Amino acid sequence: MSGFHSAFSVFGIEIEYMIVDRTTYDVAPLADRLLTAAAGELTEETEQGEISWSNELALHVIEIKTNGPKPRLDAVVGDFQATVSRINALLEPWNGRLMPSGAHPWMNPDRDTKLWPHGDDAIYRAYDRIFGCQGHGWSNLQSMHINFPFEDDAEFGRLHAAIRVVLPLLPALAASTPFLDGKNTGLIDARIDTYARNQRSVPSITGRVIPEPVRSAAQYQSVIL
Fold this sequence. Notes:
8 helices
């Protein structure tokens, strides 16, 4: 988000949820059925009022996000909660519901992974061919994204510097995944541990966890990307 709004004047929120069985809480690959029920036809994204819904790599994951930039974070809380309640109602015929957290605590990704098989799925098939997406850092991974705007390079430089300071703290503040494969991993954020290693065959895709210091959008493109 750049060129239209000044820093911190608006925000964008994206939250990924896993779809699970209401009875067993095992992952349930129902994202395509959910999107079809909401939009009236099979689609990869649908605008549902203030919140948009879209698919992700795994068929048991759904992303809900603000439909465009919003001026206040607290104003969208009700929209997200209403969306979660509506999705749970739509999933009820298949005995499904949403479950939060960064990773499923007992999912077996080698056995339970089903990738999104519709529409523009070529990128998912390519990633699966190169990396093998039946793993905790791929198919068993849910994230939250916060999008910030910047109006010019001066704002970009300050925002990027501030984000570099905060990034090392986020894994501890947002840790919610001590269990994988039904076992205590000994890590409070096992999700980050697996995610950090899931693209080791092409490490340049991941780059540094804390990106290099840059002062402009052009530097970001040339140095980091």
